[in-house]
Design goal:
- By secondary structure, the chain is an alpha/beta fold.
- The protein has two domains: about 140 residues, Lyase, Ornithine Decarboxylase, Chain A, domain 1; about 200 residues, TIM Barrel, CATH 3.20.20.10.
- Helix content is about 30%, strand content about 25%.
- The protein contains 13 helices and 22 strands.
- Strands 3, 14, 15, 17, 18, 19, 20, 21 and 22 form a nine-stranded mixed beta sheet that branches.
- A hairpin with a 2-residue loop joins strand 1 and strand 2.
- The structure holds pyridoxal-5'-phosphate (PLP).
- Pyridoxal-5'-phosphate binds next to helix 11.
């Protein structure tokens, strides 16, 4: 029988009801020792809070898991998961390169000081001008379509260079829904026919393979399948075209400790540890590689690192009783700030240790829209106007997908490792939002 390394996973089981939730009120009064009340007194409500300590810790855990399992690993930060300068800079300081999926993200990484050759340029829409700059600056470009091959050939001709490129692959890894819209399929001949086309003019050199199989993937095995398929594709490239690739980029998609709606077990039980993903990926690589040959493994880290580092502190604005008797709270933050609320149920904790019997209640946001519901059914002690709640984990995708719709977006602060509170994004003002509007002369109001 094949030897399998043991993996130790800590399981936390507390008191549960039939939905797997604990029925005791949870309170969180501080973040890394800094009182949430003090932060809210200074910066107002609502306010996003990022823990630098958790961010670094999550990254280091992931790094340790992969680098102890495989000798040649690069981590690249997925900008779209959270592209705040302070978050990106923290992860670049830790050694991550930048993974971007648009010209805006590319420019943001460059502005922060990331050199072009430390940027991976992914995504289905790379405008010609942006692609040309990325080529000039030596970025790793992952081709998504034949049209992009055509663009790159033109750029190579214009600049009179040969361009190193990677291609994006898609495949069935047993995960539903199967993502087939990005890159080229390796379960059919599509991908190898594309490579044949890519090599035709001699201006493009294929140096790497990329694929990103989905997000919040709860099955480490899916990555083992992905790696196996990518490796056998690289062997096919070698026999068919004589190509040796330098790297295998397996994307991201590792889950955070968030609770997907419809999954009733608590995340600490339902979510495999990052070690299990690392074992699965490295195990699959090492099983199929030729001895002594270790192509670079690239991990595009995203939600698994930043989600738990993010908190949203919010206050009760109004208290109501619905016609069916349910208690309802109108909070000052809603789905405008928590876009991921449509898929995940967060931890909702009181900031002060409120006593009292837990009561079922519904939490609404501030929007004048029926869908603005933070939690359809929470169990909280009775809250007064102005009482504060803290919602987590919210570090992934919310601070990039948030909407300005009818309200200003609030400030974001970082609790540093030293315990200081740094403002990392100011709250918006009318000026920010109106600065780009122009009123045609004939519409000037003379009131
Ligand atoms: C979004 C994205 C990631 C990061 O995904 P997570 O689910 O946040 O880990 C990595 N690579 C690509 C290509 C992406 O589009």
């Amino acid at each position: 029988m094949k030897y399998e390394k043991p993996v130790i996973t800590q399981i936390h089981i507390g008191k549960m009801n039939k939905m797997g939730q604990s029925l005791t009120n949870k309170c969180r009064s501080d973040i890394d020792g800094v009182k949430i009340d003090d932060i809210m007194d200074e910066f107002g409500s609502p306010v996003f809070i990022i823990s630098e300590k958790v961010l670094r810790k999550k990254y280091r855990e992931m790094k340790r898991a992969f680098t102890t399992a495989y000798p040649n690993v690069e981590f690249s930060w997925s900008y779209k998961t959270n592209y705040l300068d302070a978050v990106c800079a923290t992860l670049h300081q830790e050694g991550e390169t930048a993974e971007v999926v648009s010209d805006f993200e590319y420019e943001k990484a460059r502005r922060l000081g990331v050199p072009g050759n430390k940027i991976i340029f992914n995504g289905p829409y790379k405008p010609y001008a942006a692609l040309k700059i990325a080529v000039k600056e030596g970025a790793r470009i992952h081709i998504d379509s034949i049209d992009e091959i055509i663009d790159l050939e033109l750029i190579a001709k214009e600049l009179n260079v040969t361009i190193n490129v990677g291609i994006r692959l898609n495949m069935d890894t047993g995960i539903q829904p199967k993502w087939s819209r990005f890159g080229f399929c390796i379960d059919t001949d599509q991908a190898s026919d594309t490579v044949k086309r890519l090599l035709e003019t001699g201006r493009l050199r294929l140096t790497g393979l990329h694929s990103h199989i989905g997000t919040f993937i709860m099955a480490p095995d899916a990555y083992a399948v992905q790696v196996k398929k990518m490796l056998s594709f690289s062997k096919l490239l070698k026999t068919r075209f004589g190509i040796n690739i330098d790297y295998i980029d397996i994307g991201g998609g590792f889950p955070s400790q968030s609770r997907l709606k419809g999954v009733y077990l608590p995340p600490s039980v339902a979510i495999p540890s990052i070690n299990e993903y690392a074992e699965s990926i490295a195990g699959s690589l090492l099983a199929d590689l030729d001895p002594g040959f270790y192509p670079k493994l690239i991990i595009e880290s995203g939600r698994a690192i930043v989600d738990e580092a993010g908190f949203l502190a919010t206050s009760v604005h109004a208290i109501k009783r619905l016609s069916d008797g349910l208690r309802a709270y109108v909070m000052d933050a809603g789905v405008n700030l928590l876009f991921t609320n449509f898929w995940y149920r967060y931890n909702i904790e009181t900031v002060s240790d409120s006593q009292g019997v837990l009561e079922p209640c519904v939490l609404y946001g501030p929007l004048c829209m029926n869908i603005d519901v933070l939690d359809e059914l929470s169990y909280l002690p009775p809250l007064k106007r102005g009482d504060r709640l803290v919602i987590s984990p919210v570090g992934a995708y919310n601070m990039t997908q948030w909407m300005q719709f009818i309200n200003y977006r609030p400030p974001i602060v970082m609790v540093t490792e030293q315990g200081d509170v740094e403002l990392i994004r100011e709250g918006e003002s009318l000026q920010d939002i109106c600065a780009r509007e122009r009123l045609p002369k004939h519409l000037n109001l003379e009131l």
